[in-house]
Specification:
single chain, about 220 residues, alpha+beta, two-stranded parallel ribbon, 3 helices, 12 strands, elongated
């Protein structure tokens, strides 16, 4: 009788452990699926931006399977993709998202919530291009006139002086011929309205193409 009770108890214990393991596996699978969906979403957004000509990268970048953005501050993320990864021509491509908006390749620099970002182009097949954080960059401290009623409604002001009473989350942006403060939810409209030209990620101009790699040293 005791042996029978022991076998029943052991069977119940094994069954309980099996159920617990199954639940943990399902939870892990769900977390993995959720992370995969998040990654797939940003990949699609970047591909869409490339196809629409909002990003000047000439070829489709490759995404790492475990790639995750670097959160620079609340509402601002930095993504990095690669071309020719693992070769002598490996290049990294930086992208910035501000409040879920992928910033096009039109600004030489920008500042959001005291986090500075600069844009760089490559002169070689290898190296970094696109948007990269810069600890040396800051928004202008000189204060100018406050926003007018029209500027508040439009969501931006073209100026290199910080308007008095400006909300803290407005983005300071610079391009080749000017500067402005823009509400984060109006960045897309601002770019379209200003018709700012794309900054090339590869080479400075058609007359200055990428420099070739030197020949590999023979061993």
């Amino acid at each position: 009788m005791k042996r029978k009770c022991f076998l029943v108890a052991a069977t119940l214990l094994l069954f309980t452990l099996y159920l617990a393991g199954t639940v943990r596996a399902l939870d892990s699978s769900a977390d993995s699926d959720a992370a995969g969906e998040d990654f797939s979403a940003i990949e699609k957004e970047l591909e869409k931006a490339i196809q629409e000509g909002k990003i000047s990268i000439p070829s489709k970048p490759s995404f790492e399977e475990d790639a995750q953005p670097t959160v620079l501050c609340e509402g601002m993320s930095h993504w990095v993709t690669y071309s020719a990864k693992g070769t002598r021509s490996e290049a990294r491509h930086g992208f910035i998202e501000i409040e879920e908006y992928t910033v096009p390749d039109v600004f030489t620099c920008l500042v959001y919530k005291d986090i500075g970002v600069t844009f760089s182009s490559r002169s070689y097949h290898w190296g970094d291009d696109g948007y990269w954080p810069s600890a040396m960059l800051a928004a202008p401290e000189v204060e100018g006139p406050p926003l007018s009623e029209t500027e508040e409604k439009t969501g931006w002001k073209i100026t290199d002086k910080r308007p008095a009473g400006l909300p803290e989350n407005w983005v300071y942006v610079e391009w080749e011929e000017g500067a402005a403060f823009v509400a984060p939810d109006r960045l897309k409209d601002f770019v379209e309205k200003m018709e700012l030209p794309l900054i090339p990620r590869e080479g400075n101009s058609p007359e200055k193409p990428l420099k070739e790699l030197p020949p590999a040293e023979s061993t």
